Amino acid sequence: MKRLKTMQELVDYLLEINAPAELKKAAKEGIKAVEESNRGGAQSYLVIARTKAGAAKVKLEYDLTSRCPESDVSIFTENGEVWREQVFVFSDDGSGIIYYQRVPLLP
């Protein structure tokens, strides 16, 4: 699991994992929303999970089993990967996460 708050953190991480172009595009839009939300005083993050252990940590840390996402979109990439993008808003001030999960998760 990787938790990010800034565009630079995201760009560095996406290069590190050799992310597909479609994920890069979506995540860059997502991090803009996270940065804007945080400028307004919220506590927001962009979270990426590629492994089963990472996804389990996200679900536990953010109690996602008891929350419904505001949106849930699948991202299909040219290289055959599928990623799930979910937006969770936790409070009225905009605090929450934009969560990207690889489908299927890696071991």
Low-pLDDT runs of 5+ residues are: none
Mean pLDDT comes to 97
Strand order of the largest sheet: 1-2-5-4-3
Helix content: 25-40%
Report strand %: 25-35%
The helix tally amounts to 3
Biggest beta sheet attributes? 5 strands, mixed
Report the strand count. 5
Cα Rg = 13 Å
Succession of helices and strands: EHHEHEEE
Shape: globular
Kindly report the oligomeric state of this protein: single chain
N-to-C terminal Cα separation, in Å?
A: 13 Å
Give the helix/strand class: alpha+beta
What does this structure look like?
The chain has 107 residues and is α+β, with helices and mostly antiparallel strands. It contains three helices and five strands, in the order E-H-H-E-H-E-E-E. It has helices at 7-16, 21-39, 52-61, and strands at residues 2-4, 44-51, 71-76, 82-89, 96-106. Strands 1-2-5-4-3 form a five-stranded mixed beta sheet. The longest helix is centred in the first third of the chain and has 19 residues, at 21-39. The protein is globular and about 40 Å long.
